[in-house]
Amino acid sequence: MDTFDAIYQRRSVKHFDPDHRLTAEEERKLLEAAIQAPTSFNIQHWRFLIIRDPQLRQTIREKYGNQAQMTDASLLILVAADVNAWDKDPARYWRNAPQEVANYLVGAIASFYGGKPQLQRDEAQRSIGMAMQNLMLAAKAMGYDSCPMIGFDLQKVAELVKLPADYAIGPMVAIGKRTEDARAKGGQTPLEELVWENSFA
Length: 201
Prior knowledge:
The protein is α+β, with helices and mostly antiparallel strands. It has helices spanning 3-9, 24-34, 54-64, 69-72, 99-113, 117-141, 154-160; strands spanning 46-50, 75-82, 145-149, 167-176. Strands 1-2-4-3 form a four-stranded antiparallel sheet. Helix 1 (3-9) crosses helix 6 and helix 2 (24-34) packs across helix 6. The longest helix has 25 residues, at 117-141.
């Protein structure tokens, strides 16, 4: 599928065929596409928790969000981010670079993020967003639909899935075969209200 077609056709679908399953190869293809997203200093904060257990999915749906796609989608992924990834063996992010380049960048990571918890968290969340967009566009290109979801109790779900203390929880993404079309788009704000040049003043 053409990239622009995938962008314009991707919609947040709420109704999925509960009997459809993706193959292991399709799942891997989607996740490999997700991790091609850019990240600052190539830190790759994202972590993907595939929620496969039907009972766990049912519990999350019943207690913490009641969204049908939590149980009915072929694939349900909770996207999280390792907030401290910048400080966990950062040399691995540049293992394919020339040694002098790797040395410089590893040092730059520490000086840029060290002692700045808000920046660390902000960067982790930015990484989640870019990976999720790749994931959803890849799904569309493969003939599937998706839905990003935040309408659940973040703290309760984090406890339920044993989210590590230094991870930030992000949205879930449901992927599968839709059984109903998405609603008509609400309408995009005109570019004239969204775009400035050089200054907002």
